[in-house]
Design goal:
Helix content: 40-55%
Number of domains: 7
Largest sheet: 2 strands, antiparallel
Strand content: under 5%
Number of strands: 2
Mean pLDDT: 85
Low-confidence stretches: none
Strand order of the largest sheet: 1-2
Order of helices and strands: HHHHHHHHHHHHHHHHHHHHHHHHHHHEEH
Number of helices: 28
């Protein structure tokens, strides 16, 4: 086989030295690739299965160079199968350990991995996770997508894996994704994985019984809700424990329609830290009850395997979880709005809130009950109620709650109630109630405490005496009383405007705005938008009965009207009064 001419031999040796002198297998593959393309164009059969026939005594390392050179010419499934973008591609299949990899891979790929590898948001995350798990069974094996689907429990269609491969190959990050999948498969083949997912196909009909759900909600102060919340909680545990989608849960609680699925997708993001911990404990109890004592409830490979790779999904470690919590609580923002504000996907927001639940918004009904339970363990409540014989109201006052919460704790703890003592009925005089509630603007709770009764009883007395109750919301009663007091001592010209929430603040803003050449300049100085300031000045003009400002025109700044100057003088005079 020696070349007939020295020049041909020199060219061959020079090309070979360039390949053999490369620093890495990938560099050597790039140097060899031109030769393979030319050979294919001349009709030579060149593919991974012929690598072993290219030369007698070829080393495994040189065969890896040949596979690396072939990589761009292979289908994406074969690029995965032969680990073409790895530091050391393989030419002999199957590789050791690869055949049993399905026992160490969940039907739904670990969510953080799927989010890092997610090329676009075309795929539903559950479908994407199932398709990635399917592809993870290909490296180092001769399996096709149909067999990989079967080994994972047929949680998705083989066509989804093919579609994902097509999308991945067209994506700019495909070489990096290919490297990530290879690293992950190598890690699973060479590491002891603490979970055998084939063993997790258990009887899930008994996961999270209704009594346990009730107990968890009571202990954590969570809203029990309707049967839907229990269904969603059971689906969440099923998916966490089994690694399979909630669609395959037992028929008694499986997700069967789109509205329920949408509720389920958002459910982990609505958990409190206490409720999440309670559900995790219930999952561990379920596993122990099923005889699985030597495995953690959930696990994922270290995300550090992706270090150094540029991937399409976000690095979740760089997302500010505290900022996410702040945005979620602020104005009750929708999750999609939170995702847009942080520049991440909705799936990422849902996952992060499921992994790091936002602290419960303070002073919800559930939070109040949870705080009372923490402050009053069963023994402490027995001591106060049974032995010291304090009333429910007295106990509630000690822990800063109300008697209804203490009454619920008695029922939860199974503490027997004392026989009630009939107290003489308290009669509320109509004239007194009308004077205090209507004229003095005192609150019902304040009046109830003075009379020694509940707020509900005081409200019933108001109804009995045909005294109209104030609407809820709006300015506080104390603020209204202060405003009314100001109106009674203010200059007559200002009194019509001293009503409602923020009355005095509106007058002060007008006085400040009058010093600027335009409304826009005044709003900027006050830290407001121009629109709200204009609306407030218009309101003052309606209430006071006259125009306050002549608006700015071209070449002329904003000016006070004669009536406006009178109002400004009254505001300044009233501001400097000793009472203020």
């Amino acid at each position: 086989m020696a070349p007939a001419r020295a020049a041909v031999a020199a060219v061959g040796v020079t090309a070979a030295i360039r390949i053999l002198d490369s620093d890495t297998i990938r560099d050597a593959g790039k140097a060899l690739r031109w030769f393979l393309r030319v050979s294919r164009q001349r009709g030579a059969e060149i593919n991974p299965s012929t690598v072993g026939t290219w030369g007698k005594g070829t080393s495994a390392r040189l065969k890896a160079v040949q596979i690396s050179a072939l990589a761009p010419m292979l289908k994406p499934s074969d690029q995965l199968r032969y680990r073409a973008n790895a530091d050391s591609p393989c030419h002999r299949l199957p590789m050791p350990g690869a055949s049993s990899r399905h026992e160490r891979v969940p039907s739904l790929l670990w969510p953080e991995w799927a989010l890092r590898l997610q090329p676009t948001q075309v795929f539903n995350l559950h479908i994407l996770r199932a398709a990635f798990s399917m592809l993870l069974l290909l490296p180092g094996t001769r399996r096709g997508l149909s067999e990989a689907t079967r080994l994972l429990g047929k949680v998705t269609k083989a066509t989804n894996g093919g579609r994902l491969l097509h999308d991945l190959e067209a994506h700019a990050h495909w070489p990096q994704i290919l490297t990530a999948m290879t690293r992950l498969s190598d890690h699973l083949d060479n590491t002891v994985v603490p979970i055998d997912y084939s063993r997790r196909r258990l009887d899930y009909n008994v996961v999270l019984p209704e009594d346990d759900w009730d107990r968890i909600c009571r202990r954590t102060g969570a809203f029990r809700g309707t049967g839907l919340r229990l269904q969603l909680a059971r689906c969440l545990l099923f998916e966490k424990i089994s690694g399979m989608p909630a669609d395959l849960a037992p028929a008694s609680f499986a997700i069967a329609d789109s509205p329920t699925r949408n509720s389920y997708l958002n459910f982990p993001a609505r958990l409190s830290p206490e409720l999440a911990a309670g559900l995790n404990a219930a999952a561990e109890d379920f596993l122990h009850g099923q005889g699985v004592l030597d495995e953690p409830m959930e696990w994922q490979p270290p995300i550090s395997l992706l270090n150094g790779l540029i991937l399409p999904g976000p690095d979740l470690g760089r997302v500010d979880v505290n900022e996410l919590h702040r945005i979620v609580h602020g104005n009750n923002r929708a999750l999609s709005d939170c995702a847009q504000q942080l520049g991440i996907s909705l799936d990422t927001v849902r996952y992060l809130l499921g992994k790091h639940p936002a602290p419960r918004h303070p002073r919800t009904a559930g939070h109040v009950q949870f705080e009372a339970r923490m402050a009053l363990p069963r023994d402490a409540l027995i001591q106060l109620y049974t032995e010291q014989r304090l009333s429910l109201r007295e106990i509630a006052h000690r822990v800063g709650t109300n008697r209804q919460i203490i009454s619920r704790l008695l029922a939860d703890y199974g503490i027997e109630r004392r026989a009630s003592i009939q107290c003489p009925k308290i009669v509320v005089d109509r004239d007194w109630l009308y004077e205090q509630y209507i004229n003095q603007r005192r609150t019902l709770p304040d009046l109830a405490q003075e009379a020694g009764m509940s707020t509900a009883n005081m409200a019933r007395w108001a109804k009995t005496h045909n005294i109209p109750l104030r609407d809820r919301g709006g300015a506080s009663h104390d603020e209204i009383r202060v405003t009314l007091a100001q109106a009674s001592t203010a200059p007559r010209i200002l009194r019509p405007a001293l009503n409602g929430h923020g009355a005095w603040e509106r007058l002060q803003r007008f006085a400040t705005a009058a010093r600027y050449p335009t409304i826009t300049a005044a709003a900027t100085a006050l830290g407001l938008h121009q629109g709200p300031l204009t609306i407030q000045i218009h309101r003052l003009e309606r209430e006071l009965g006259g125009q306050l400002l002549e608006r700015a025109e071209r070449g002329r700044p904003m000016q006070l009207t004669p009536f406006g100057r009178k109002v400004i003088l009254a505001i300044r005079k009233y501001s400097s009064a000793p009472a203020l």
